Amino acid sequence: MTDAPEREVAEEVSRIAEDIDTMEIRGAATIADAAARALAAQADASEAESPSAFLDELRAAARVLCDTRPTAVSLPNALRYVFRDVRGATVEELRESVRESADEFCERLDTAQHDLGRVGANRLRDGDTIMTHCHSTDVLACVEGAVEQGKSLSAYVKETRPRNQGHITAEALSEMGVDVTLIVDSAARRYLNDVDHVLVGADSIAADGSVINKIGTSGLAVNARDRGTPIVCAAQTIKLHPGTLTGHTVEIEMRDESEVIDPETASEIGDPEVLNPAFDVTPPRYVDAIITERGQFPPESIVTLMRELFGESPIQPWEL
């Protein structure tokens, strides 16, 4: 994390940043909601005596939050949204504008996921079988929308090592009444012939339509294309990465080796170097559609929506 002066960052901001960093807070929409509320908490806690000092504290808090998960673009997009409407001639006016902007963003988040779910539900037919990877609340919203329409679904759920986020997905789908089969990650190709749609989420989507998602997504997409199984990405517009040209320009987070192997027993297998990338990049040619709350788009046209929402290449307000 950025070494911002401790006096400038509220205790609540530090706590939320730590929870995001350790994945106690996970899922792009949940992270975005927490980040926006953290800025509101910073505004409430600030004892700045001048507008410039208040804004400096807000920028310091934003930098601490943004550094926790470099690949999850929903986080900086949330911060960008809140900063967009921060204005005022006094500290109190600035404080109130932060609160209002954060509240508005969180309200739009709630609506966005519901709207996305309705769009995604229309791709699913009664009796369809899906395959999922990792845990995505946007994917779950699509399935929930389909179930509410009276459609009966079944699912192959990849366990998604090393943190087994697939277990979370399996539980959520089971609670919806979906018939769930949990499979090991390496068995995905074996069962793709029985699948009607592969549904994945995204942590970021680049301007060319590349999907940056949990490690293993790109391999699954290649296998799905080979099997002729459509692969659909469900992602709110907060996942669009306005500072990218291609997916390969997005920084990929490397997680700690302790998620893969116990450091105390590593010597038993020769102390190998451990690489634990959290995400990979799926080129747009392997993705059939990207579902957002604004509708369904072919990957190649996502740049048009991105420019409409964010402009060409916005500057991070906390970098000014």
Describe what you observe in this structure.
The protein is α/β, with parallel strands linked by helices. It folds into two domains: about 5-115, Up-down Bundle (Four Helix Bundle (Hemerythrin (Met), subunit A)); about 115-310, Translation initiation factor eif-2b, domain 2 (Rossmann fold), CATH 3.40.50.10470. Helix content is about 40%, strand content about 10%. The chain has helices at about 10-20, 30-45, 50-65, 75-85, 90-120, 135-150, 165-175, 190, 215-225, 300-310; strands spanning about 130, 155-160, 180-185, 195-200, 205, 210-215, 230-235, 280, 290, 295. A seven-stranded mixed beta sheet has the order 3-2-1-4-7-9-10. Strands 5-6-8 form a three-stranded antiparallel beta sheet, covered by helices on one side. α4 (about 75-85) packs across α5. The longest helix has about 30 residues, at about 90-120. The model is unreliable at about 1-5 (pLDDT under 50). It catalyses: alpha-D-ribose 1,5-bisphosphate = D-ribulose 1,5-bisphosphate. Keywords: Carbohydrate metabolism, Isomerase.
